[in-house]
Amino acid sequence: SIQPIEEEEVVFPCDNFTMVCKGVYRSSFPKRKNFSFLKKLKLKSILTLILEEYPEQNQKFLNENNIKLFQFGVAGNKDLMDIPEQAMYEALSVILDKRNLPLLIHCNKGKHRTGCLVGCIRKIQHWSYTSIFEEYRRFSHPKSRTMDQQFIELFELRNVVADPRYLPDWPEVCLFFLV
């Protein structure tokens, strides 16, 4: 007997989507058309860096899929060093807790604020500044911000708090927190 061909669901990743490291993804703000793609990631958490209230359709998606929302409102760093360091420390604590993974980090476009947070993750992972800034520029193109790169460079990792019992199994992270 002939079996009917099942139509494959078309999925659309968010703009600027990529895997940062095991269990951590980055992207622009998820839209309704991205929800079926996000479902496939089996996310436990979404960490947003937007200031605005999270939209109702996105809240509904989170509730339906048992995804926890962590919101750290950060204004864009257009001119002055106005990224609140404390928000970045708290965001890193969420990311460095494997109970929250897999996790998606996003802001509006997945460029600048997300790039700053990912840059801080890369510092924890012992990346060189050359590599950190190359990645930042790749995602922020065509508007890379010198102030964002300066924020990453001056960010003090010693103030990051993480529970060693729940660190993700990234070798470089274990080295960083157990030294």
Radius of gyration equals 17 Å
Distance between the termini: 64 Å
The coarse silhouette is globular
Q: Could you list the spans in which at least 5 consecutive residues all have pLDDT below 50? A: none
Q: What percentage of amino acids are in beta strands?
A: 5-15%
Order of helices and strands: EEHEHEHEHHHH
Give a written overview of the molecule.
38% of the residues lie in helices and 11% in strands. By secondary structure, it is α/β, with parallel strands linked by helices. A five-stranded mixed sheet has the order 1-2-5-3-4, sandwiched between helices. A hairpin with a 2-residue loop joins strand 1 and strand 2 (24-27). The longest helix has 13 residues, at 112-124. Helix 4 (112-124) packs antiparallel against helix 5 (129-140) and helix 4 (112-124) runs parallel beside helix 6. It contains seven helices and five strands; from the N terminus they run ββαβαβαβαααα. The N and C termini lie far apart (64 Å).
Quickly describe the structure:
The chain has 179 residues and is α/β, with parallel strands linked by helices. 38% of the residues lie in helices and 11% in strands. It is built from seven helices and five strands, in the order E-E-H-E-H-E-H-E-H-H-H-H.
Tags for this model:
single chain; alpha/beta; 7 helices
Secondary structure layout plus pairing:
Elements (H helix, E strand, L loop, with lengths): L17 E4 L2 E4 L7 H6 L4 E4 L7 H9 L3 E4 L13 H11 L7 E4 L5 H13 L4 H12 L5 H9 L16 H8 L1
Parallel strand pairs: 2-5, 3-4, 3-5
Antiparallel strand pairs: 1-2
Helix pairs in contact: 4-5, 4-6
